[in-house]
Every structure is written in C-alpha cells, then in structure tokens.
Design goal:
globular; alpha+beta; 1 helix; seven-stranded antiparallel sheet; 7 strands
C-alpha cells in the first residue's frame, strides 16, 4: 500500500510538471534597444516576454522598439501604472528617459 501511494504521488507530480512546462510563455519577436548614461554602447532585450516588467540599469533613454509589440515606458523601476512616460509602437524611437518597460500586444 505504501509503494502504491508513492507511485501515485510520482504520477501526479509528473503530470503537474508536464502541464506546467507545456504552456509556452508568449513573447514578442525582435529586440528593444536603449542607452544608459555612463555605459559604453547600449542594451538590448531580445524577444521580450509579454507582460513582464523589465527594469533598466538606471535611468535609460533613446529607446528603439524593434519588436512586434507595443512597449510601455515607465518613469521608474517596477512598471508602476501611475508613472507611464510614453507608449512606443513597433518600429518607433523615443528620446524619453525611463526606468522600466513592459511589452503588450497592441
């Protein structure tokens, strides 16, 4: 009886794990580039996940959205909804300064 419970627990755990990994995260295609003062070159996010907040190293600027998603730029870290700087359409650039970005289907 003890081995039956153990086998059942293994089957249930395996089913739960396979379900968890079978659901793919949706992501935009392309890259999002920006600059941070004091850093040589720039930074890029490749194929960013939808809805996830991406904080920059510090205050960023000169964003270029080369993804197939709408980029929402926020004033500070953690993508606080009350601090939206601008909405950056696919293919657009903006000189605005920002601290975080989130990608949404637009």
């Amino acid at each position: 009886m003890k081995s039956l419970r153990k086998a059942l627990a293994v089957v249930v755990a395996a089913a739960a794990l396979s379900t968890a990994f079978a659901t793919p995260a949706h992501a935009g295609r392309g890259s999002f580039a920006y600059h941070v003062d004091g850093w040589f070159g720039g930074f890029e996010l490749h194929d960013p996940e939808d809805g996830r907040c991406h904080d920059t190293q510090s205050e960023a600027h000169s964003a270029a959205n080369h993804t197939d998603r709408l980029a929402v730029l926020y004033r500070g870290a953690d993508c606080h909804d009350d601090a939206v700087v601008t909405f950056l359409q696919s293919g657009a650039q903006a000189p605005d300064r920002f601290g975080s970005v989130r990608f949404v289907v637009g």
